[in-house]
Design brief:
- This protein is α+β, with helices and mostly antiparallel strands.
- It is built from 4 helices and 5 strands, in the order H-H-H-H-E-E-E-E-E.
- It starts with a helix and ends in a 6-residue tail after the last strand.
Length: about 140
């Protein structure tokens, strides 16, 4: 099974698990994200989806994206001073945000895992998000 097929299967399973109806609009929104590695904003997804579904509203797209986050299909990437961005890669990884062109680049960690600092031992860590900021090699 290739990456796209695997993601589509996960989409179906997660929607069923959370009693979320699998509509053509929801499918289109999710599939738009798994094909796009630029970590689009809700506005970007809306602009693309409205071509296929002219009557869909921005609010519907935004709420759908947030519901996908709630059920674990997507991750939100907060970008300081900009609209939040969405990522369909939910495995543990970080991001590099170029402060000039606002490109987001996936960052993998040594051994594929972000280690929890020893200073947090005894705490329950539910989520790890790392965002490096700087200037990408294209803008440098």
């Amino acid at each position: 099974m290739n990456y796209t097929q695997e993601k589509k299967q996960i989409f179906i399973e997660k929607c069923k698990e959370h009693n979320l109806k699998i509509t053509p609009q929801r499918q289109a929104i999710f599939f738009e994200l798994i094909e796009d590695k630029t970590h689009p904003s809700a506005q970007t997804v809306y602009n693309r989806i409205k071509e296929q579904f002219p009557n869909i509203s921005f609010d519907t797209v935004n709420r759908t994206l947030l519901s996908f986050v709630d059920i674990g299909l997507l991750e939100v990437i907060p970008v300081r001073g900009k609209a939040k961005r969405f990522d369909s890669t939910t495995r543990e990884h970080g991001h590099f945000n170029c402060i000039k062109c606002h490109k987001l680049i996936d960052v993998t960690f040594q051994d594929g895992e972000l280690k929890t600092p020893k200073s947090l031992q005894g705490n329950v860590v539910l989520n790890k998000k790392v965002i490096f900021e700087g200037i990408c090699k294209d803008c440098k």
